[in-house]
Amino acid sequence: MYDKFSFAKGYRARAIFVICNTIFLILLCILMLVPILKVLSDSFDAAGNYELRFFPKVATLDAYRLILSTESLFRPFMISIFTTVVGTILALTISSMAAYVLTQKEMPGRNFFTYAILITMIFHGGMIPTYLVIRSLGLLNTLWAVILPMTCNTYNLILLKNFFSTIPQGIVESAEIDGCTPLMIYTKMVLPLSKAGLAAIGLFYAVAYWNTFFNFIIYINNPDLHNFQVRLRELILTDDFLQRGTFTIYPQTVQNACIIVSIIPVMILYPFLQKHFVKGVNLGAIKG
Amino acid sequence: MANSNLAGMQPGTKQSKMARKLFLIKKYMPFYFMFIPALIIYVLFHYLPLWGIRIAFYEYGIFGIKYFKGLENFYELFSSESFWRAFINTLFISGGNLVLGMFCSVVLSLLLNEVKNGPFKKMTQTIVYLPHFLSWVVVASIFTMILSPQTGVVNSIIKSMGGEPIYFLAKEEWWTPIFLTIYRWKETGWGTIIFLAALSAADPELYEAAWIDGASRLKQVWYITLPTIRTTILVVFIMNLSSIFNMFESVFVMQNPLVYKVSDVIQTYTYRTGLVQADFDYATAVGLFNSVLSFTLVIIANKLSKIIQGESIL
């Protein structure tokens, strides 16, 4: 029993290490959470008192009410939701179809397609050429400029492809013999069998879309089409925002509340994400 | 795949190969259609921009390409002081971040690997992975609030101890260390995943044997654990090296004009010259130089790993 936890001679050094290690990791966890908890607590603060405390002196929900009732804060939130939902659905549809095609071993041109996709992981056009393409396509100042380029993430596509190739070939072949067309096999068999994988990749896409920031900055000038991330940064930098209306509230409280609002969807998805990402990262690492 | 059309033909002849190919193409026709949307996306947003790189060698006006001007943009680039400043900053910030990141993640994964209590390990992992999923904007916002000179908690502690408040993110001497620390806060936990997976592959019998032979824990880590994950460390290092010049959004959301001198990296420089000042051809040249550089770096690193390890990574 070389892992025994005991203070007897011979085990003592180990026991001390375990204790120190545990304390260190607990401190680390606290360090990870403190910034987020501080922002959370400050977002309820009504007294404008942002010192070292983790519970507001006087609590209020006014900051959140303000976000819901101020159009310049609420609209970016809706844009974020729109791009996330539409983007994720589109991205999942397009990438899963492509990924399934890449699992067809006999298909002429399959290798060509695979390499054509993999090459883009190494060679990028870069910021300006991509911008010029999007401009010449007439996509500037539309949400499509943000949604479309992200619909095919090569990394996610490869993960999906690996996932699809774990489906036993026998099932597919027997369906083929029964007279199923490839499209039927795909929609009626492959997709239902891959629910877990699709959910995982869908979550990856959703988080990516929700967190999109820079594409909005370069492709969209119209502030009415900016998402919550862009609005949040503006708010933090300038604090220019609002007619505060009927609310009397400190700007810092609103800023903190906005941070929390942009975190909430990720927090909701996080437990589901966590189930999948470890597998995803390792799978990608082996292939990459 | 038996096929009645082909049954009468000699296998292996040129003709039968062609026929088989045609047959397969016909058979897989629906799949080609399924691939079309992805193909369009890739051509539009990945391959067309690649073709667009050529404007680095042209004069680009409002109505598109005007005339060929060869390497002029690159001469301008190499003689530009702000470019070299951005270049040095990139090496310093991104390189520092790479080394620091590798070190922290390896150490943390070694420590996590020593935790034998399942639920505690799981909880720790859950918490340290979390910041990875927050966007850089959110992370920058959180720390802007916390480090704010007027109301931030850090400065209120400094004030209560009688010090002067410090505007951390606007002070040149503070910006880089603060940035690297925040980067570690966000990504260290995430970086451990891959090492933890590699660590779980270590053979437990080796440890037991070493223990019986009287090897101390540190010796076990040095002689068993680290060699097990050496390849992984190298792979991760090379993969991160390839993106060392791509550091962008993190810097962009945390910098401000007051600290351009220490915080401007190649990508933010590209953004400002290209999109803010609309000097498209010049910024494309910067981007091209950037890509060539990172590609060369990867090749060199790969060669190095061949020498050190006897096998290449890529």
Q: What do these coordinates show?
A:
The complex is a heterodimer of chains A (288) and B (314). By secondary structure, chain A is mainly α. Chain A folds into two domains: 1-42; 62-287, Orthogonal Bundle (MetI-like fold), CATH 1.10.3720.10. Chain A has 13 helices and no strands. Chain A has helices spanning 12-42, 62-69, 71-101, 110-122, 127-136, 144-147, 154-164, 169-177, 182-193, 195-210, 214-219, 228-238, 251-287. In chain A, α7 (154-164) crosses α13 (251-287). The radius of gyration of chain A is 25 Å and the shape is globular. By secondary structure, chain B is mostly helical. Chain B has a single domain (75-309), classed as Orthogonal Bundle (MetI-like fold). Chain B contains 14 helices and two strands, in the order ααββαααααααααααα. In chain B, strands 1-2 form a two-stranded antiparallel sheet. In chain B, α8 crosses α10 (217-242). Chain B starts with 13 loop residues before the first helix and ends in a 5-residue tail after the last helix. At the A-B interface, α1, α3, α4, α5 and α9 of A face α1, α2, α4, α5 and α6 of B.
Named CATH architecture of chain B: Orthogonal Bundle
Strand-pairing-aware structural class of chain B: mainly alpha
Helix content of chain A: 55-70%
Strand content of chain A: under 5%
Report the strand count of chain B: 2
Low-confidence parts of chain B lasting 5 or more residues at pLDDT below 50?
Answer: 1-8
The structure class of chain A reads mainly alpha
The stretches of 5 or more residues of chain A where confidence is low (pLDDT under 50) are none
> Which fold name corresponds to the CATH topology of the largest domain in chain A?
MetI-like fold
Number of helices of chain B: 14
Q: Which chain pair has the greatest contact? A: A-B, 93 and 92 residues
> What's the CATH class of chain B, please?
Mainly Alpha
Outline of chain B, from the CA principal axes?
Answer: globular
The total count of strands of chain A amounts to 0
Architecture (CATH level 2) name of the largest domain in chain A: Orthogonal Bundle
